[in-house]
Amino acid sequence: MFKLPRHETKTLLAIHGWSGVLLGLLLYAVICTGVAAVFASELNDWASPLPHATVSADLPPGLDDAIRRLANEVDPQFHEEVAVYRGAGGRLNLLFHRHENGPDGRPTERGVEFELDPVSFAPLDRREGWLEEIEAQRASTGVADFLVNLHVRLHIPDPWGLFVTGVLGLAMMVAAVTGLVIHRHLLRDLFTMRLGRDAVLRRRDVHVVAGSWNLPFAFILAFTGSFFSFATSVGLPALAMVKFGGDQQALFETLSGAPRAEDPRPARLTNVDAILADARSRSNAEPNFLSITHYGRADSMATVYTELPADELVYSSYVYDGPTGTFIREAPPMGTRPSVGASLVGLMYPLHFGNFGGALSKAVWVGLGFTGAYVTLTGMLLWAKRREEQPAWRRMARFIHYVGYGLPLALVCAPYAFFILRDSDIPAATSQGVAFLTVAALTAVAAVTTRDMDRLRRRLLAATGIALLGLPVVRLATGGLGWMQALEHGIAAVPCVDAALMIVGVASLWVALGRRVRMALPTRVEGQIKSEPQAT
Amino acid sequence: MMFLSVPAILLSTSFIAVLARRDPKRLRNLASAHARFSPSPLSARVRRLLGVLVPVPGVALMLLGAWWAFLVWLGALCIAGWIASRALAIHTG
To answer: Residue A49 CB: number of other CB atoms within 10 A?
Structure first.
């Protein structure tokens, strides 16, 4: 498509390859976990369903009584803000909290969180402490939280984890743009995939064809991912510094409106159920998050967020006066009135999460994420293959195989620890982290001891397939709901996720045990001449 | 308007399937053993016509203001194109 001078093409190819190979392994981890995280809510419903039929509304009627009852059980200092949202299996989470600087001096929250049954509003769990401590105690959302944390910050503490994933997003954008520019025959080669004797040509084609088809979304997902990583960790502080002389309060007032004048006089909060019903009728969408500031005071306000309304891509929130329940305004994603910038910010969410069209859009986004992971892996393998005459690159190729096929295995094995140890006192993140690292270490041993890399790839794929097939069994064996019981209760996530795991497991086994075509291609592996089998 | 994205995807995917199956460059690279079973390549004119038809359902979704259906269509199209290329990959012997 672009005809560049030869030396410029070479320079761009070097940028494309080096940006990919230096950060590609971490990027691959971020993409793989992102693929699973698209269905985070469904994964939570699958892993931790309630043992009875639940309600369809995320914030069901009857919430008003529950908020009042629980407000009396917590220290009034935590009435500063109440956040109400849906948890795993439809559970209700109510977080009474205040904003403080944490032990490390950084702004955070401290309070008490209740987990309620959405039908009876009976308490299922109570967690308290700093926000990070509360998050660590959230057992029911353990499976998805582990994946999302890996995706968002690679389990590196904030803000460093966000910096890293933001840089990875930028690297992906660089690779996408340079890939577009250096590929002269993008359209002509869209269907050309030659799986022949020439391993370099084969690897080039599988990478280029997948990359070409995935190009628009590689850019979109990388851009939106970088936005989310950098917005809070760099963007807002930088904006506060440049525009408001470091005054973050002034920045927040500009972005979300000035807070109400302080009025600490006691005042009863209006009926929350009525506010939610009003927001439901205004938005034609189901409320999924409620925030109440200054609970029990004359200056309290309630803000209701909803799912994306049908056929919309940008969400709004609805702001109400706390004591009277009077509707104040519809708030855009950013600022106090609709603007192009606010719409663009709002658009980032559906574009990155693919959550705007139910299961269909999520399934498409999973497919796009899988393609992105495939492009990243095949690109790194191609780069290493082209340099395999050098021992360091042969070791790199082995390492890429290890991460490329070992990471999915370790990710699949982590929920085993969640199911087996969920009734113990060990936090879900810890048990899954230990399982993940243990499998990663065992896989590393396999990677070192298995000389033939195609055999390594097949073994890891087969192990992943078996692990996927075993997950529903372990879930059931550790007290999970059976399919019939789940369907009787209207919990579709249980059979659907089980079935998806089994289908992907069988597919992994099929690829792993598939016909092994030995080619007479001499390839130098670890100082030996070996034939390279056909593997893509 | 979710239902709109499905026929749009099917329509565009069918055009892509034809383009992929009868792509001249792909067929040129086909090993001689497979060549006699392969279809004839599309003429440049037909390819251009199909190339124009592929995005038409997406454009229609845009004109209808069904932006989320358009996004689903575009994403599905990218996956379908890759799958078609992968499924018709040539074993060059």
So the answer is: 22
CB pairs under 8 A between A and B: 107
What ipTM does the predicted assembly reach? 0.91
- Measured between its terminal Cα atoms, the distance across chain B in Å is 47
| Three-state secondary structure call for residue A460 | helix
Residue A387 CA to residue A397 CA, distance in Å, equals 9
Q: Which residue of A has its CA nearest to B22?
A: A191
- Tell me how close the Cα of B29 comes to any Cα of chain A, in angstroms: 7
- Give me the DSSP letters along B52-76: HHTTHHHHHHHHTT-HHHHHHHHHH
The C-alpha R_g of chain B, in whole angstroms, comes to 15
User: Could you say which of B67, B84, B90 has the minimum Cβ distance to residue A313?
Assistant: B67
Q: What does the mean pLDDT of chain A come to?
A: 90
- Asked if the Cβ–Cβ distance from B79 to A356 is below 8 Å, we say no
DSSP structure class, residue A287: E
pLDDT digits (tens, 9 = 90+) for A59-117: 999 999 999 999 999 999 999 999 999 999 999 999 999 999 988 888 899 999 999 99
B67–A188: do the CB atoms touch at under 8 Å?
Answer: no
Residue with tokens 């009077």: A326
Point out the residue among B2, B19, B75 whose CB comes nearest to the CB of A368. Answer: B75
How confident is the model over A181-204, as pLDDT tens digits?
888 788 888 888 888 768 888 889
* DSSP three-state, residue A62: coil
Preferred mutation among A187, A192, A212 to probe B, highest tally of B CBs within 10 A: A192
Partner-chain contact B88 A193, CB within 8 Å: yes
**How many of the other CB atoms lie within 10 Å of CB of A381?**
24
Does A61 lie at the interface with B, CB-CB under 8 angstroms?
no
Tokens of B67: 């932006």
Query: Is A217 at the interface with chain B, CB within 8 A?
Result: yes
| Model pLDDT, residue A20 | 83
- Tokens found for residue A35: 């693929």
Structural contact between residues A475 and A47, judged by C-beta atoms closer than 8 angstroms: yes
- Residue A520 tokens read as 């007479």
Instruction: Say which of A189, A206, A368 has its CB closest to residue B78.
Output: A368
% helix, strand, coil for chain A, step of 5 = 60, 15, 30
Q: What is the phi/psi pair of residue A415, to 5°?
A: -65, -20
pLDDT in tens, A282-322: 999 999 999 999 999 999 999 999 998 877 888 889 999 99
Distance of alpha carbon A118 from alpha carbon A307, whole angstroms: 18
C-beta atoms surrounding A35 within 10 Å? 22
pLDDT at A377 over 90: yes
According to DSSP H, which parts of A109-198 are helical? 131-137, 142-153, 160-182
A110-147 pLDDT, tens per residue? 999 999 999 999 999 999 999 999 999 999 999 999 99
